[in-house]
Amino acid sequence: MQTSTPIVSNHPFPLPTTTIRAGIAIKSVNLPDATWAKPNIELKDQRIFIVDDEDLNIRVARKYLRSWGYEKIESTNQPTEAVHRIRQADPHLVLLDVMMPEVSGLELLAQLRALEETKHLPIVILTAHIEDSVKHEALELGANDFLSKPIDPLELQPRVRNLLHLSVHQRWLEETSVRLEAEVKRRTESLVAAQHQVIHCLARASEYRDNDTGHHIIRVGAYAAMIARKLGLDEEYVQTIEQAAKLHDVGKIGIPDAILHKPGKLDDQEMYHMKTHCDLGLHVITSLNDEQESVANRKHVQMGASILEMDDSPVLSMAAQIALTHHEKWDGSGYPFGLAGEQIPLEGRITAVADVFDALSSIRPYKPAFSPDKCREILSEGRGKHFDPKVLDAFMIAFDEAIQIRVKYSDMA
């Protein structure tokens, strides 16, 4: 990894006390193989909750259940406490009486189905007499099954067993879904980190050709993100432009060293070659087929068709537009296409301000680093000419923040 450049005296910006390196360190992530074993249903582990205002009915049901191996059984004869108690117990199955004082079983059923944690909980309705209308309402509210009272153990046992299997598998599916989502999230984060590393390496490739720029690519990305936030753009756009703006000068890979490192002013022919780095940048980032590659080798890439042929990656698509348009000017006097105003993509207008500020505030072979006040003055002179007024105003509002970025990612050790 390239180290920071030596200290240069009389730099107008305060310097950090520690060296900041441009490389991004990404730790390797070892993701364990996911094992999705089917649930092992143990009767003694299944939790059953009984709601009935008659203690005798509870005792009878509990006796049957215990004789079949069910050990975790809770109950209440107070229907007003039922929902709270059920949420605390987190049962796999509820046996719910219909005819109770104060709160009916149907009302409790409706309350339980309205709660996220109990909306899929298997519930068996217990009743001595059940009319078709009540049965229909119970089914509409989400009842899973019915049992007549007094309880027949020959009916109770298979219904409880079947619904417990349903409950356990439902929970297993939910837990599996959560684990899968976590796995996808981890892998997505790993892919995003890898993409950022590739982008950074590609940007650094151009920076190594032009090694006077130091941490230029990191700063330009940070300035661009800062401006986007001040413009009120959403966080997805902000994060995308922070990565994409790092590739704004990737086309310099194709510029001869004699031009790229010339300490004096470029002549017309040299300036022509320098300006081609916009097209070269687009060519590097864009995915081209064989026919497009042949065309690109014969002439400059045309903006309209090329923008529509960007890679599916949002970052690379934006990076291509930035590489192509960050030297366009608001008044139409820029290059390579002479676009004006809002013809220039917003990301190109944002990066133009970020790039120029960094060039003004940095040491170059042909100039010293200007002071913050001098940078502000020169940028203000370009308002409505070089720069989109709204974009420049957003930068000026956050000028102190830009200075902090400048200091944090200084080229000095």
Describe the structure.
α7 (about 235-245) crosses α13 (about 315-325). Helices cover about 50% and strands about 5% of the residues. The protein has helices at about 55-65, 80-90, 105-115, 130-140, 155-210, 215-230, 235-245, 255-260, 270-275, 275-285, 290-300, 305-310, 315-325, 345-360, 370-380, 390-395, 400-410; strands spanning about 45-50, 70-75, 95, 125, 145-150. The two termini are about 15 Å apart. The radius of gyration is 34 Å and the shape is rod-shaped. About 35% of the residues are buried. The chain is built from 17 helices and five strands. Residues about 1-10, about 15-35 and about 275-310 have low confidence and may be disordered. The protein has a five-stranded parallel sheet, sandwiched between helices. By secondary structure, the protein is mainly alpha-helical.
Radius of gyration: 34 Å
Unreliable parts: 1-11, 13-35, 273-310
Across the major sheet, the strand order is 2-1-3-4-5
Secondary structure: number of strands: 5
Structural class: mainly alpha
Instruction: Report the total helices.
Output: 17
The succession of helices and strands, N to C, reads EHEHEHEHEHHHHHHHHHHHHH
Largest sheet: 5 strands, parallel
Average of pLDDT? 75
- Principal-axes shape call: rod-shaped
Distance between the termini: 15 Å
Helix content: 40-55%
Binned strand content: 5-15%
